[in-house]
């Protein structure tokens, strides 16, 4: 065989072209080797990402609140209502029910303690990534019969620093979860394509793919990738019309040494080929997923930011080249890459375009190196949905977008390295040493990059260190400083955020919140109105504006804004609860009752809604309904001091003897006192009323004395001290007062003021 022939058919290519009918069953030795590699891959992955297992690893306020700890549906775990919501919700501009279910399962398994210390949620992400690494290796080994290249692809996928975002970010569970079904689809397709045709194996491919789309819609390109795998390494005849014999992919052409599997046919024959027809269900699933995604993300597309198509196109070209460069030199990774406000330099665009065209031309020219064309096209096609031609969000690119697309480039590297070693065996150890050095360095960089996701401070500080002009980083770091009570620093960060992006809705809302807190209410209202002008369909802007108007005493305008927010999002519970509050303050009691009744169906606010209903029924002289709702509030929140106190008060002071129950009132009052650590005066007044109703006036007087002592040490307790003095007059005379109207313990303002 001549030198040219040797170059055309490398040992790797020859192995990859062996038809299924001629492949030998795996030996016991091969199984042991495969098992050993899987163990090594798992250990290597855990070493690279071991920092996420630390118990001081927490959330970041970049979607983690919306996806986990502030999501009422996720927090309640796997219930009938939450599962139904997962499959019907388009919340946060996506339809990914399996992702929601995985978060709910974590919440179910780890409980409230897990929500407080979310290291277990991080560990779930790591487990999924480890499974992806192993299944990727198994799938490639099955389809190519090449051990070392398959292993190298899996190793690079396991420890590359650009995987840190997908693994360390809890909200990006959809990446690693969809990745699992992506790998399982590859594995199932390899079994299906290298064996006799079988309905169960075919349905397994379709099922895994459908589940993957239900975790993240980025898998829409997978049917095209399977067509690429038909070309290499499976070498299935893409042009043979139905019916297909299933006896092996182009055995005659392969045995003759031809890489072109079958003679070229007309377009009709191509469209009727088995390779196309068998993937029709997959393409239909992809089309359905695209339609749902476009509908769900219609509000997230940055039409408002006026990013022209030419800017998006040039950014896409630069992003393609940057993703390739970052694979080889991941030195300047950042938690966030904001879209350049003034576009990208034409020199950078020109160089990027030249790189893309050059590599593409090389892949076309080297058709006999199937791994080169397939790996390069894998990368170009799979990342296309998120390359930015249709802009969603404010980022120009993101590390997480390369989670699956980079596998194509890993294939190019691994099989290219194998080919070079075959051609220049004298340099084999040089290449092996380079890989041996690169992998530990990648793993070390991955560990460092993962650590930036430890908590809010480390994450946003790292983001600003990489680029001080990231508006969202200033906004979220400002929010952190606001929670820490460092309002001046928060104000500076919010001002910087809207300076960088004048049309930044969340920045204006948060700046309005700080100004309102500082007492500059009118300035705060201006920023809320600016946010509404920028994005009229954003419900939170109306809620914050309504809250500010409540503080100003403009209840009708506040009511109007809360109703608009609910019209935009009928499940926005904060808007519903505040609407009930403002209706109550306008003495529109029946409307307020109807509003709170509607809120009872939402688990996250059910206790508050029941308590508010109890109060409204109490002031409208319907004590039985008040008692029902306060008992419901106690069932939902057994340690609610408010609900315990008000229920005990009603059971002690209602004029109707059928309602009064001093024994139960004493029990509930004592529970409220315990929950308040004996430091809150209201439960002692309720206890005094219960003791007086039971006839123990000396004990009632002692409870009132304790209430006055506590009230004297606290602010805004004049009313409760006055109430205790009035009751003392009755109890010293051995009398009980059942005047419900004059003995309310808690006013509407004290009951429900939500300014969060």
What does this entry look like structurally?
The chain has 756 residues and is an all-alpha fold. Among the domains are: 174-296, no CATH class; 633-756, Serine Threonine Protein Phosphatase 5, Tetratricopeptide repeat (Alpha Horseshoe), CATH 1.25.40. Helices cover 67% and strands 1% of the residues. It has 39 helices and 2 strands. The chain has a two-stranded antiparallel sheet with strand order 1-2. Helix 24 runs antiparallel to helix 25 (487-500) and helix 24 (471-483) packs parallel to helix 26 (505-517). The protein is elongated and about 110 Å long. Mean pLDDT is 85; it is low at 1-23, 239-265 and 742-756.
List keywords for this structure.
single chain, 756 residues, mainly alpha, Serine Threonine Protein Phosphatase 5, Tetratricopeptide repeat, two-stranded antiparallel sheet, 39 helices, 67% helix, 1% strand, disordered N terminus, disordered C terminus
Question: The CATH topology of the domain at 633-756 is what?
Answer: Serine Threonine Protein Phosphatase 5, Tetratricopeptide repeat
Highest-level CATH class of the domain at 633-756: Mainly Alpha
The rounded Rg comes to 33 Å
Q: Could you tell me the number of beta strands?
A: 2
For the biggest sheet, the summary is: 2 strands, antiparallel
Strand-residue proportion: under 5%
């Amino acid at each position: 065989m001549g030198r040219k022939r040797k170059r055309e058919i490398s040992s790797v290519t020859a192995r990859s072209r062996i038809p299924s009918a001629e492949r030998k069953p795996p030996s016991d030795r091969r199984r042991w080797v495969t098992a050993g590699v899987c163990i090594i891959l798992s250990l290597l992955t855990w070493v690279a990402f071991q920092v996420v297992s630390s118990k001081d690893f927490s959330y970041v306020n970049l979607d983690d609140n919306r996806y986990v700890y502030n999501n009422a549906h996720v927090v309640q775990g796997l219930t009938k209502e939450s599962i139904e919501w997962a499959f019907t919700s388009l919340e946060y501009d996506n339809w990914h029910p399996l992702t929601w279910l995985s978060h709910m399962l974590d919440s179910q398994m780890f409980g409230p303690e897990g929500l407080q210390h979310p290291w277990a949620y991080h560990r779930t992400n790591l487990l999924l990534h480890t499974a992806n690494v192993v299944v990727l290796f198994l799938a490639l080994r099955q389809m190519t019969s090449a051990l070392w290249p398959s292993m190298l692809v899996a190793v690079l996928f396991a420890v590359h620093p650009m995987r840190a975002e997908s693994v360390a970010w809890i909200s990006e569970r959809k990446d690693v979860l969809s990745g699992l079904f992506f790998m399982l689809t590859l594995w199932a397709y390899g079994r299906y394509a290298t064996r006799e045709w079988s309905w169960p194996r075919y349905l397994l491919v379709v099922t895994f793919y459908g589940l993957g789309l239900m975790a993240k819609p980025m898998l829409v390109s997978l049917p095209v990738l399977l067509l690429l795998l038909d070309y290499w390494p499976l070498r299935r005849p893409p042009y043979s019309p139905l019916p297909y014999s299933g006896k092996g992919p182009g055995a005659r052409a392969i045995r003759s040494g031809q890489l072109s599997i079958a003679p070229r046919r007309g377009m009709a024959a191509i469209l009727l080929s088995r390779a196309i027809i068998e993937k029709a269900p997959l393409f239909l699933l992809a089309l359905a997923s695209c339609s749902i995604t476009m509908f769900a993300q219609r509000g997230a597309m940055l039409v408002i930011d006026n990013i022209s198509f030419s800017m998006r196109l040039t950014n896409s070209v630069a992003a393609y080249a940057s993703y390739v460069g970052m694979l080889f030199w991941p030195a300047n990774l950042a938690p966030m890459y904001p879209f350049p406000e003034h576009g990208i330099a034409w020199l950078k665009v020109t160089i990027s375009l030249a790189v893309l065209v050059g590599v593409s031309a090389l892949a076309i020219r080297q058709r006999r190196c199937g791994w080169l064309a397939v790996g390069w096209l894998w990368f170009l096609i799979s990342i296309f949905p998120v390359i930015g031609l249709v802009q969603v969000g404010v980022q120009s690119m993101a590390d997480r977008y390369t989670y699956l697309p980079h596998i194509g480039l890993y294939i190019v590297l691994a099989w290219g390295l194998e080919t070079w070693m075959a051609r220049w065996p004298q340099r084999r150890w040089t290449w092996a040493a380079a890989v041996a050095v690169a992998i530990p360095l990648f793993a070390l960089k991955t560990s460092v990059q993962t650590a930036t996701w430890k908590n809010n401070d480390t994450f946003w500080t790292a983001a600003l260190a990489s680029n001080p002009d990231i508006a969202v980083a200033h906004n979220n770091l400002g929010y952190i400083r606001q929670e820490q009570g460092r309002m001046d620093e928060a104000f500076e960060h919010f001002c910087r955020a809207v300076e960088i992006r004048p049309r930044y809705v969340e920045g204006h809302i948060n700046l309005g919140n700080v100004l309102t807190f500082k007492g500059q209410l009118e300035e705060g209202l201006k920023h809320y109105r600016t946010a509404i002008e920028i994005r009229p369909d954003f419900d939170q802007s109306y809620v914050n504006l309504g809250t500010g108007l409540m503080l100003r005493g403009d209840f009708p305008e506040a009511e109007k804004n809360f109703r608009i927010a609910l019209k935009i999002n009928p499940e926005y519970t904060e808007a519903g609860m505040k609407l009930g509050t403002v209706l109550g303050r306008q003495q529109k009691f029946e409307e307020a009752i109807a509003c709170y009744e509607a809120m009872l169906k939402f688990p996250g606010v059910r206790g508050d809604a029941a308590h508010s209903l109890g109060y409204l029924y109490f002031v409208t002289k319907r004590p039985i309904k008040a008692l029902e709702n306060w008992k419901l509030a106690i069932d939902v929140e057994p340690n609610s001091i408010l609900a315990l106190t008000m229920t005990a008060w009603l059971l002690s002071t209602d004029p109707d003897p059928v309602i009064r129950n001093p024994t139960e009132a004493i029990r509930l009052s004592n529970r409220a006192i315990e929950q308040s650590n004996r430091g809150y005066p209201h439960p002692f007044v309720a206890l005094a009323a219960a003791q007086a109703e039971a006839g123990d006036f000396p004990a009632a007087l002692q409870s009132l004395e304790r209430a006055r002592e506590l009230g004297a040490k606290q602010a805004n307790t004049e009313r409760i001290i006055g109430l205790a003095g009035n009751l003392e007059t009755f109890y010293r005379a051995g009398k009980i007062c059942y005047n419900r109207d004059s003995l309310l313990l808690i006013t509407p303002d004290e009951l429900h003021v939500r300014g969060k």
